[in-house]
Design goal:
heterodimer, A: 354 residues, mainly alpha, Alpha-Beta Plaits, two-stranded antiparallel ribbon, 9 helices, 10% strand, B: 389 residues, 0% strand, globular
Amino acid sequence: MSVSRRGFLGGAGAVAGVVAGSATARAGGGAERFVGYPDAMGLLHDTTLCVGCRTCELACAKVNGKPKPAGPLHDVSIFNKLRRVTDKLYTVVNRYVKARGKKPPVYRKHQCMHCQEPCCASVCFVKAFTKTPEGPVLYDPSVCVGCRYCVNVCPYYALGYEYDNAINPTVQRCTMCYSRIKKGEQPGCAEACPMGAIVFGKRKDLIKLARQRIAKFPDRYVDEIFGEHEYGGTSWLTLAGVSFDKLGLPVNASHKPLPELTAGFLSVVPLVITIYPGLLLGFYAWTRRKERLTEEARVAAVAQARAADGEVAATKAAEQKKLAESRQKRAVDLAVKKALADAEKAAAAKEDTP
Amino acid sequence: MSESIAVVKRPLITPFNVIAGLILLAGAGAGLYRFAVGLAPSTNLDHLNPWGLWIGFDVMTGVALAAGGFTISSAVYLFGLKEYQPLVRPALLTGFLGYFLVVVGLLVDLGQPWRLPYPFVVQSGPTSALFEIALCVALYLTVLFVEFTPAAFEWLGWKRWRRLVHRLTIALTIFGLILSTMHQSTLGAMYLITPSRLHPLWYSSHIPVHFFVSAVIAGLSMVIFESALSHRVFADQVEVTHEKLDEMTIGLAKAACVALGIYLAIKVVSISLDNEWALLLTPYGHWYLFEIGGFVVLPMIGYAIGFRERRTTIIRVSAVIAVVGIVLNRLNVSIFAYNWQLPAHERYWPHPFEIIVTVALVTFGVVMFKWIAGRMPILHEHPEYRGEH
């Protein structure tokens, strides 16, 4: 087995292709700190104002051309079961804490959080998701292959997929009413909310507003804005009077954007491609060298053995030759003797004959 | 076709063929149904559980179990373990069929499978671990195919082609090892971004390394298991004597034992670094201990005893346990310990059709292996190329 130069170069060319591919992977890894687009819009949901009327659900369905949400809006029995965002229900209001004495129940509206650094955008292998400078995370169904990696990793379970569509199923989720924002309008839910529990505005202004509310009513709020820092921050901000883990939001969410966790690993990939070929060829050369040395030692040993054998054989041959010669000589002598004796006999016989 | 290889005529109607045929028919039916009506009626996938058995087993587990190809070919061609040469071709064939089935399984699962080339021809998302996997699997499937072709060329009698590919052996082996290192670990890296959804005992920032090392275990164990099986099923084909096979099995057991030891160590290191000892006392912790104790420690001890006492039966049983362990690990990561915080009624359990398609894919792999090994020089050397590797 030998490495032909052509064969090796062929392999090297293919490796170079992968290196080029991973170089872009590194560039897109996003290792630099990104604090969000400065003028991005956002929404602030003040759960202490939310009464669970679900008007936002209805408005959302209308704006997005989706079926009317289940049950009449005044039917509170719907809150007995935790509902989830689906491909047909972009937003859903759930009751997380039941009323206790004078304390009213706590509701929270759930939908895509429009992360500053979205997992869905990071994991998509066709880059179907984009975080727009305006704030919304947008999705391009025209490139989607339907692997649903985005649906699988979202820490907020906020994406739906059209499982009942056999022809061209796509991911379905809140778009923060991007087209309405572009027209200068508010998202459907914010416009519809009769309680003013959903405020639309620039994200940085909303954070200030939330801080003011917390400062003004310290007893009413938990001193934290969910979405300010969680997983790098979200465009959808939440204020609450109870701790966020009671509201179905991730417990102990780190402040580090989740895509960074993958970027670190992917940055190692080019090292594998650059180090492995040389390292492995080194191993291969080492193996071959060991084989060659073994082979050389074997050949030398055989030759030596042969040479030793040769001497022995030569001696033997000489002895045999001597033996054979002496035998031959004896045979000749014998034959001559016999012939002489025969001749004498014959002569004697002649003499005897008269 | 070479005259010297006698194709043993086997009857078409055998219990194996009938059962395999029925399974394949059922699988084809379930597959057609999935494409006719979509994923909703044919699977239990939903918005909370978008990845089920087809990703968890067909892709995640399939890739790991097909790791024998790169493990054995690297050992023989790069590291000079020439005595394992007879195992290379079956391992490469299993690898090729395994990856082929991974792609088929993926196509069944994808919402719009006809768009599979999109990441390369329409728009790339290189920040995605999946992009790297797609690229590596596409390339590695090609590498495995080329690595397998010498057997087909020998069978067909195409000497020039066979010579050409034969010259590429080292380059292909190195390329295969690079690609395997990358995508086997990147399959684990797909879960780096899900610290809130994957149970902390299985989640680790080292999960790519866990996946790579366990893939080596899976590859070695599959080769031990599969070579024993081939020796029984293809007794008329194999040239390697039982003694020689036992010798190789014992050698592989040593390697697998070391790999399991390393795996156990890095698992303990992960638990220790993340300080998750207390979690071992929870129900998920018991399940984790069951996985590690029953399917890492046990086969490791089994391999060690089998190696030391030269008992191939113990080794082969350990191989089966280790393979089941890798299946369990991949299913734990992708299904059982995933979305662990969701209430029971929102958890995933595979739909019968999902199970049927998966069983049919595995069956298809076995049937293809049987068909090819029954014809091409996989388990024996072609007489014209004897000793030439």
